[in-house]
Queue: 4 jobs
Job 1
Amino acid sequence: MIELTTPFSEEDIARLKVGDVVSISGYIYTGRDAVLPKIVKHAEEGTLAEVNVDLQGQVIFHTAVSPAGVGPTSSNKLEIESSFEPLSRHGIKMHLGKGAIKPETVKALAENNAVFAIIPPVTALLESQTENREVVCYPELGMEAFHKIKVNKYQAIIAAAQGESIYG
């Protein structure tokens, strides 16, 4: 088990390999189909500070935040998977979700020293390891708004790192 605390350094990510099991603690961002294109647009326009977002060394968890808890959504949805490269380029070091991603996405992760980790769909367990939650921006999207949550020992498996993937 590799213990990681956000924000991650370049060295933290560079040492990870496909199949490593990690435990993540600290603050992480959450977002999925509705909000990630908006965050990508802010990143590309250089306006992340206007929405109180700093992506440097951070994690983006592909989930919504509801009263029932958090659980991974499919990371290979078009709006989500297309966010990997630009968000990695702008500082995200780990994308956390579920599902197979394309070889081009694996390559883009490697080029930006970022990784993709999968997390089992265990909403109740993750809720017990979520210590705090706040809406960062786009509150009108409800549970799909961009959130920042404080997590304690979320466990995940590295599924894509250094140009390799468990998906082939």
Job 2
Amino acid sequence: MTMIKKNALFITLLMILNFLYTSCNSSDDTVADELENPVNFEEAQLFDFILSEVDEDLVESIVIKQPTMVNGVPENKGEIKIELAYTDISKFSLKQVPFNTVDFSISPDIGEQHILPGKNITFTITPSKKTEVTLQYNVLVTVKRFNPENEKLKINAFQFLNAQNPGLDEDISSSEIRKHIFDSSYDGTIVMIVPNGTDFSNLAPKITYEGSSITYKTKAGSAENFKEFTPGTFLDFKYPNQVIMRIHNRNRSEFATYRVLVDVKTPIVFDDVTAIINDGNTVSGFDAYDNIIGFTNYGNYPITSDIFVSDMNVTNTPEEVIKNYFISVILKGDDIIYTNEKGRLYAQVNFPGNLIGTFTGITSYKIDATFSIINRNFSIKKRTNVLNAMQDFDIYTPIKIELQANVFVSAP
């Protein structure tokens, strides 16, 4: 054998021995690393399972059963069961994982829509270092069977809370929400009574309702004017605005419509509690007095026609037999009386030349005139539906004023 062949054989043997040595050391290092740093699957356990396609409020229940772990290694599969309220979404995916995706991977992956309602699907979590052992969960998503067209649509409560409305001293709730006979275009009418001086244009309602969503509009117009209502939204209830709320079902194929009217309990306030007719001069015969005393409309809605007295009660007279000599008492305006505008009290009387009493001289004849504010003689032009709602709810406090006439008395 030549020297060249011997050298080649020697080099080949050295290379084989080096490869065998390196392989043994590498295998020993891998085994040692696995013994010193085993995979801990507890780091990859799922304690929540968030779906990408739905909000949390759609999730009615979630139950997670963890697999049995022995020394951090799973012995069986875990189970995840999620129940959703009705939705027409047909495919779902996992939104996020709690573990480091460098150390573990999951299949199906985040965002892959492989979850179908009513069908089990296995999610497999695989470590990056040791792929022959995995952590698995059987995932089942169920959706409640429900027809949106049968969804109940209703406002249960309407409030102005002091915490959201700094101008109010206390919480205000609607006494009742009703559908009245005068206007069938609404599923219900809500009347809110606020204190005198409240800014009608800046109120934030709290609404409790049954349904999937709620929208509103404050001005007349088409359905496109409706906007999404969110808690804390301030609305303008000041006339001529009229707030309309709609409760929608889940797929918005159906809705219930409510209107909201806001006013004060005592919209009409007189300049004084007593009024003297004829500037205090004695009264006799038939006469009319057009501006005995003024009043202010502090209500949200305008007064566009006369308000007639609803009751008159004689409180002071020199005669033994009580007689009422006031023919009519009316609240009037030159035109429409809007919020914070003035009106006047008008009265017709027919007193005898002198009243028969126990003495001769001048005395005061007095009556109390009461106005129910809303009665059949009072209407709001072009807004009769508002009047009828207010009348139906009977919300206003009757107002009273004392009318005084100076009359001449003669003894019998």
Job 3
Amino acid sequence: MTRGCLDTPVIKERGQHEVFCGLTSIIWLHRKMQDAFFLVVGSRTCAHLLQSAAGVMIFAEPRFGTAILEEKDLAGMADANAELDREVALLLQRRPDIRQLFLVGSCPSEVIKLDLARAAERLSEQFAPHVRVLNFSGSGIETTFTQGEDTCLASMVPALPASDAQQLLLVGALPDVVEDQARALLAQIGIETVHCLPAQRADATPSIGPNTKYALTQPFLGETHAALQRRGARWIEAPTPLGVEGTTLWLMAIADAFGISRAKVEAVIAAPRARAQAAVARVAETLQGKSAFFMPDSQMEPALARFLQRECGMDIVEIGTPYLHAELHRPELALLAAGPRLAEGQDVERQLDRVRAARPDITICGLGLANPLEAEGLTTKWAIELVFTPVHLFEQAADLAGLFARPIRRKQILAQGGPRMEAAE
């Protein structure tokens, strides 16, 4: 393995930071798990955040909600556990389709020390076997943005049934179309027994054991990774399957783990890889030679930087990430050419100073920082879109490049006076 950025000193910052809390992960998790419900035990602010993030239509009935903690709950004047039990009973009576119920901790529930783990155990016993109740934290005190998915999946691992079967487990919530593409490629390579965590439905929940090998589809699943290893599963170390190179190396690593020849993999991926390379090359014409600056948001930053540097010819000024996981980010850092600064955590004012000094062609950051930077004449990309949009594997590689190219093209058009518009006759 090349050293790449593995020896680059890491700037560790522990100041004010600008990220969404882990509750926002519910937006994509509830779409993925079709018979699950996410009940946030929190305040009206939590409810407003989720409604704003999801853009829920008035006639839609989503599979998430908020058990509102009122003033009397926060003041200890009411039995919060009794109230929670009542709300859960009413919810399950009204929604008999629910098979998995997640009690999601928030800042308010953590502040009053409401033991949701014990509540989940109590409610699981009450509503078993029809409903399994689990708990995880999405609190902004404990988690940032994508870490909500990590704590959710980690909460599921101890309850997975045991199995000695030889199998592959894909870990991380992917859009259904991308998951189908991954299964199809793996089947052609010769790996038939493939399960996913999370599964789309409770009855497809995977089993796990010492003969389970797992590949991560997201680079922010540190707690889930540790939980799977505690269950005896074996990790397949590989880059995240973003871009042509990342997808190729990810598939090759899986094939190696199952004793499948690389020649077989090459034969299977030759056509989709060639299509993806050609499509990325067309988009990369806009990105070639441009500079990018990543502010910390999702832990996807090292993988995205690797893609932009190696496949799109961009100069990466700084890679900021909420947490730099030594194991999970190692394959990405090894591939990155030395040069970018690495920053873990955030002191937002100091990092903004570095952005202003560098004046990059594009800054990847959260929503709260994008508009102020745009007002200063800097081009930005919303980091949240990189999680909501299908970007993994060969078929989405050009779409991933396009997410960065469009803001740059837009600025170029505006700098030229914008497109001319003809009056309609």
Job 4
Amino acid sequence: MMKLKKLLAPFCVLLFALVACHSPKTAPKQEAFFTWEDSYQRPVQLDTAPQRIVSISPAITEVMFLMGAQDKLVGVSDFCEYPPETSKITKIGGMHNINFEVLLSLHPDVVLIGSMISQKDVDAIEKMGIPVICIVEEKSLEGMADMMEVIGRITQCEEKAETEAARWREKIADLKAHAPAPKDRKSVYYVVGFGDAGDFTAPKGTHIHEIIELAGCENVGGSVTNWNVSREFLFQQNPDIILIRKEDMEAFCSSNPYNKLKAVKEKHVFPIESGWIDVVSPRNIKAVELLREKASAL
């Protein structure tokens, strides 16, 4: 019997080895690099960290440069003009006329969009097998910090994003804490559009309204709900300060009837870089500081 056991022992070892070799092994499930519910309330997922990114949002592009993640940008929209280095990045068209052929040729790992892209275009991009993540340009300046943190996660710049987001929140809190008393506030009208096509300004609930409020001023458009206003409304309000894009200032101040406004007569019309105020971006703070400086000097 002992001899039989000794003879069987090698075969048992061999059988165990064969069974072990052919036993199915369950590979550990790889955790996705990034999962999130985007601004369109869609669950989105990136399995790996994207190395080739296309941004169709000026705000997102600017934040990526702020994060130091610009090397991952292989394409941007025609409206992404800041910082100047964006001129060296391939343009893929505008918000409503995306060049899908150019976009596809860039082989992006992900396309980051803002609020101006249609659902039709989103569907077209995703049909090409390219993930799309919507990060809406926040209407509230405080929301810019959230955008920084999300983009920091996507670009693997979390530490830089956390630092910049904390600095942003601190700056907003400081501006609110040191705002002038209501009785000392100057009324401000921001010229979004003027002339034969109509008069337009920023209503309440927009980031432009918040910029004016953070500067310690009163937004003339704060009492309306639409961007377009009547000329009668403008003259009735007769604002203390008019803020306007620098390229539009001369035409506005020399045109009838705008040249009859109090702010024009008193030379309280101040030019501003459109990139500081027209889109939500880290440069909005420059608009707040400019307006606060001008208002406090009156």
